[in-house]
Prior knowledge:
The chain is an alpha/beta fold. The protein has a single domain, classed as 3-Layer(aba) Sandwich (Rossmann fold), CATH 3.40.50.150. Helices cover 28% and strands 28% of the residues. It contains seven helices and ten strands. The longest helix is centred in the N-terminal third of the chain and has 12 residues. The two termini are 19 Å apart.
Amino acid sequence: MFRFKQFEIHDEFSAMKIGTDGVLLGAWVDVAHAKRILDVGTGTGLVAIMCAQRNACARVHGIDIVEAAATEAQQNMLHTAWHSRLSAECADLRSYCPEVRYDHVVSNPPFFLTTLQSPDAARATARHADTLTYDDLVSAAEQLLTPGGRLSVVLPTECAATFRRVAFERLWLSRIMDVVTREGESPKRTLMEFQLSDKPLMPRAETLTIQTKDGSYTPEYRHLTEEFYLNF
């Protein structure tokens, strides 16, 4: 179990455990004006719950191809103050046909394109892009988003350029943030926001450093995540 300031997350059954990537995405994604949000590959439901905490009006729905993960997400959502606006189900994005459209789609998607798969089948499904490709995610977002809607993802920096090429001329990059784990190192992960737009957009680019050289957390990282982490 992982305890945040306003909720707890159990991750006994989800293949993907609580990690920095999910927290970064949930804290960074712009949900201010969204009425409906879809969390693809919801896992424990962490990102969906963070979005519900940050937007007092939005209805947030999570889907996961792994039934055990979707069930655990439902349980985690049920025990939050925002349970009436949260829901989750076991569904495959490639065949997902909801009756509504979403203002924002968020995802911490499969990202290892070439590395050896984990021997754990559920973990492999969660971490590899052979079950949900980048093209699958972009194509689904095109169909599921409202006009002007947004898709936000977090990826290893080495995969970000590939994702941008897949999205090019279908979803326009509007925000990008490279994340440096420790001051002086190269970025290890990248957060990107794309918009369903008829016109090209000029993306706003920024860099976030999590820790200084002496291992203390930077003011910028504290500010981004202070609504959630108990020690901030």
